[in-house]
User: Which sequence fits this backbone?
């Protein structure tokens, strides 16, 4: 079971189906802190060359749907950024409860955080701080008391959530979740929902999975055709040990020691391909904002071809074509002719076609049904309280 540790000492459980406990380290005590402390920890923004990308756009006019555990629309780092959303779960914890919207808020902050306080210099800054977040609740937090009763209910939540997001204005869909269990396999409704999104010009981004130390099982929705699947690297560009290696890997992004916002108004460090997915969704949002006419295939091609620090041979199952670089993608996009919003995909997979040895097989048993059966999120939060602003 993954655990959050608060400065005061009491732990609360985090959302994930890929449970690993990390040692906690309080980086800063609760209480007053310099405004630049959190920003100094956000190494991923420098790694993604966001300052250079922001000379072109910060994502204005783009909506990113975050299909997750909910998003805290009252968080100061997301003020004015969160649109009215949809709850496709319909039970469990609600706003104000500890087991609500933790993971979703963390992902929304990575994508669209704009900070707060004087000159917005406090708190988390996202990759695309001017995008809007469309929250769609499709899974429960791991610590939700209702989670044990969720099996069998709303098994279509993920597929329905994708379609709802498309029909309600999403330009990008962030799926920082996945099933990489031993019984994971393609689910026709989810696959069809992804194809519906792509046909409507909506880019779909998903975390590759956190099974790198448990056999690299195929993870869905990352493995559906057309999805931009994201693996995780550390601040040195090295593949994170937990990050799943599979044929569907498109690019990598920061996924270790990532600063996240939480509904409790504290800041934590976490790791996982969920975070990496959110960084790429932010990068995609920047490209869509500057070039709204590009199709999902065009956007994916830009993101893949402009990634930096490519592995030997140009691509690997571990990190795709390298670290996503939104500034480079924007520069390359500026040289392209206008393109239509939708385009057929010439092949089912973006990476190398899976061999018989690595291709997913239909098991005898089906996917675990229900909201819990989506298998949770691919983001494991460490334990580190970075800062809590003193109220006074």
Assistant:
């Amino acid at each position: 079971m993954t655990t959050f540790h608060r400065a005061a000492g009491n732990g609360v459980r985090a959302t994930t189906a890929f449970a690993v406990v990390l040692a906690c380290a309080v980086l800063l005590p609760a209480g007053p802190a310099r405004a630049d402390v959190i920003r100094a920890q956000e190494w991923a923004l420098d790694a993604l060359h966001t300052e250079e990308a922001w000379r072109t756009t910060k994502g204005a006019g783009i909506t990113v749907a975050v299909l997750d555990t909910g998003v805290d629309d009252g968080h100061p780092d997301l003020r004015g950024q969160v649109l009215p959303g949809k709850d496709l779960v319909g039970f469990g914890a609600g706003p104000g409860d500890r087991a609500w919207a933790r993971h979703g808020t963390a992902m929304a902050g990575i994508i669209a955080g704009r900070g707060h306080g004087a000159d917005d210099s406090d708190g988390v800054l996202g990759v695309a701080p001017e995008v809007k977040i469309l929250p769609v609740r499709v899974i429960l937090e791991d610590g939700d008391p209702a989670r044990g009763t969720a099996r069998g209910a709303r098994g279509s939540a993920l597929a329905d959530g994708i379609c709802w997001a498309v029909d309600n204005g999403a330009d990008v869909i962030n799926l920082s979740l996945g099933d990489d269990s031993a019984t994971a396999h393609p689910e026709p409704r989810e696959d069809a929902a992804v194809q519906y999104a792509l046909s409507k010009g909506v880019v779909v981004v998903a975390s590759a999975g956190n099974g790198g130390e448990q056999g690299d099982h195929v993870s869905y929705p990352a493995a559906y055709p057309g999805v931009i699947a994201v693996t995780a690297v550390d601040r040195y560009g090295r593949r994170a040990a937990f990050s799943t290696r599979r044929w569907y890997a498109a690019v990598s992004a920061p996924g270790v020691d990532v600063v996240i916002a939480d509904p409790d108004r504290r800041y934590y460090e976490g790791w996982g391909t969920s975070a990496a997915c959110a960084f790429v969704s932010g990068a995609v949002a920047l490209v869509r904002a500057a070039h709204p006419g590009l199709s999902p295939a065009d956007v994916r091609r830009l993101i893949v071809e402009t990634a930096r620090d490519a592995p030997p041979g140009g691509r690997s199952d571990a990190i795709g074509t390298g670290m996503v670089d939104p500034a480079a993608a924007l520069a390359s996009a500026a040289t392209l002719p206008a393109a239509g919003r939708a385009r057929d995909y010439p092949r089912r997979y973006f990476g190398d076609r899976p061999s018989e040895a690595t291709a997913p097989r239909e098991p005898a048993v089906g996917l675990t049904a229900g909201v819990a059966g989506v298998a949770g999120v691919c983001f494991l939060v460490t334990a580190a309280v970075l800062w809590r602003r003193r109220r006074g």
Residues 1-34, 339-375, 387-392 have pLDDT under 50 and may be disordered. The domain at 3-388 is CATH 3.40.50.200 (Rossmann fold).
